[in-house]
Design goal:
Helices cover 78% and strands 0% of the residues. It is built from 13 helices and no strands. Helix 1 packs antiparallel against helix 10, helix 5 packs across helix 8 and helix 6 packs across helix 7.
C-alpha cells in the first residue's frame, strides 16, 4: 500500500511513537536523580539495539548496514550523543514539559542551519517564522523572570545539537538506510558511554536495573515505530503529530511529578508549535513547486 492509501495508520504509528518516547522520558527523569546521564544513556543505547536488530532484519538483513560513509555516521554520532546527554541532564533538573517544549526549537534551528550547511534557500516567510518561534522559546525559557534557570540553556543546547544531527541525517539519508543510521548511532553511543562506566558506574538495584533496560527497549522501539509511521504516511502529514508530545509530557508531569505549567509556558509552546507548523507547510509547498517544475 502506498502512503496515500493509509494515512490513519501512519498517524496512529506516529502518535504511538511519541507516546513511547514520552514514557521513556519519564523513566529518564526518575532515574537521572540517582544515576549519571552517561550511565542512563549507556543503557538507553545498548538495549535499544534489541528493537533496532528487528528493524534491521525487517529491512533486509545485514546488507542494509553496508556503508561507505563512516565519517558521516561518526559526525552524526558526535552531535547525537551530545544532544542525548544534554537532554537527559535537563530532564533531571527541569520540569518534563519544559524540556519537551524547548526541544520543539529543533525545527527552527534546522531551518536556520540548512542555509549555511545545506545551501538551501530560505525565504522571508520562513525566516519570519523562525524569529517568531524563538520568541516563543524565550517565553518558555523565561529569562526575564528573575529566577533564570541555566539548565534551560542546556536544554536549548540539546535542541541545537539535535538539529545538527538532523542536518547530517539529511545528507546520509540519500545513500544510507534508516536502519543503518540508527544502528551505527546506537553502537557509537554504547561505546562512548560504556567507556565512561568505570568512572561513573553506580550499581543499580534490581528494580532500577529493570527500568534502565526498559529505557533502552522503549527508545529503540519508538524509533522503529516512527520509521514504520513514515512507511504509511507522508512527512507533511505526520510531522505535526510530533507536537502531541506536549500533551503527554504535561499529563505525565502533573500526575507523576506534581508539575504544573504556567500560562507563559503554554503561550510559548503555542507560538513554537505554530511557527514549526508554518515552516513545515512552506517546505511542503516549495517541494511541490519544485516537483511540478521538474
Amino acid at each position: 500500500m502506498s502512503a496515500a492509501q493509509s494515512p490513519l495508520r501512519g498517524i496512529a504509528f506516529m502518535v504511538l511513537s511519541v507516546a513511547i518516547f514520552c514514557v521513556m522520558d519519564v523513566l529518564v527523569k526518575l532515574l537521572s536523580q540517582t544515576y549519571h546521564p552517561f550511565q542512563v544513556a549507556f543503557f538507553r543505547s545498548v538495549f535499544a539495539l534489541v528493537p533496532i536488530a528487528v528493524m534491521v532484519a525487517a529491512s533486509g538483513g545485514m546488507r542494509v548496514l553496508r556503508t561507505r560513509h563512516l565519517g558521516g555516521h561518526a559526525a552524526r554520532s558526535v552531535v547525537g550523543i551530545a544532544a542525548l546527554l544534554m537532554f537527559f541532564y535537563s530532564f533531571a533538573h527541569m520540569k518534563l514539559a519544559d524540556v519537551v517544549a524547548i526541544g520543539f526549537a529543533g525545527p527552527l534551528f534546522i531551518t536556520a542551519l540548512s542555509v549555511p550547511l545545506l545551501g538551501e534557500q530560505v525565504g522571508w516567510r520562513r525566516w519570519s517564522a523562525v524569529i517568531v518561534g524563538f520568541l516563543g522559546v524565550m517565553l518558555v525559557v523565561n529569562p526575564g523572570s528573575g529566577v533564570l534557570d541555566p539548565v534551560a540553556f542546556i536544554a536549548l543546547g540539546a535542541a541545537l545539537f539535535y538539529s545538527f544531527a538532523v542536518i547530517v541525517i539529511r545528507r546520509l539519508s540519500t545513500t544510507e538506510s534508516n536502519a543503518a543510521i540508527v544502528f551505527y548511532f546506537s553502537i557509537a553511543a554504547s561505546v562512548v558511554c560504556g567507556a565512561m562506566m568505570p568512572f561513573l558506574w553506580i550499581s543499580p538495584s534490581l528494580e532500577h536495573l529493570a527500568l534502565l533496560i526498559l529505557i533502552g527497549l522503549l527508545g529503540g522501539s519508538a524509533q522503529y515505530v516512527m520509521v514504520e509511521a513514515f512507511r504509511w504516511g507522508q512527512v507533511s502529514l505526520l510531522a505535526p503529530f510530533e507536537y502531541t508530545a506536549i500533551f503527554f509530557s504535561l499529563g505525565f508531569g502533573y500526575f507523576i511529578f506534581g508539575e504544573t505549567a504556567s500560562t507563559t509556558m503554554l503561550i510559548g509552546v503555542a507560538i513554537i508549535a505554530s511557527s514549526g507548523l508554518y515552516i513545515l507547510n512552506r517546505e511542503t509547498v516549495r517541494a511541490r513547486q519544485a516537483a511540478k517544475a521538474a
